[in-house]
Amino acid sequence: MTTARRDSSDSCNSLALRKAARYLGATYDRALAPVGLRATQFSILQKLSTQGEMTITSLAEAIAMDRTTMASNLKPLAREGLVTVETSAADRRARIAAITPDGRDRMKVAIPLWREVQAQFEESFGADEAARLRTSLGAVLHTGFEPWAE
Known about the structure:
Oligomer: single chain
Low-confidence stretches: none
Helix content: 55-70%
Mean pLDDT: 91
Number of strands: 3
Shape: globular
Strand order of the largest sheet: 1-3-2
CATH superfamily of the domain at 37-131: Winged helix-like DNA-binding domain superfamily/Winged helix DNA-binding domain
Structural class: mainly alpha
Number of helices: 7
CATH topology of the domain at 37-131: Arc Repressor Mutant, subunit A
CATH architecture of the domain at 37-131: Orthogonal Bundle
Order of helices and strands: HHHEHHEEHH
Largest sheet: 3 strands, antiparallel
């Protein structure tokens, strides 16, 4: 393979991943729009509904998001009454996020929409291929690849 081919945007892992993420993100956003949620908000509510209350830091880590971005994503959910964010009684420096009853109700309506788009993707892409994709993408998070770290 020539250097020119290796250096082209066609072989850029980041670009390929971002293009696919934008495409899939928009697809899930459209599917969840009738309940007023975006895919990221759905993921946050889903994590809180299965894990219970979590610190913003642990929630951010669970979703592979930085803490500041997570705090920004929680604000509209809190304004809508779908989550609460309160100072931890055990550690005044920590903030605890929790799903509210209204958030659980919204999830009950959103989950069938999510399941439908999930099924459509797996039908189109292939269920086995989708499972391999999730496994591969999950492995990316555990490669230890951090060229900027000292």
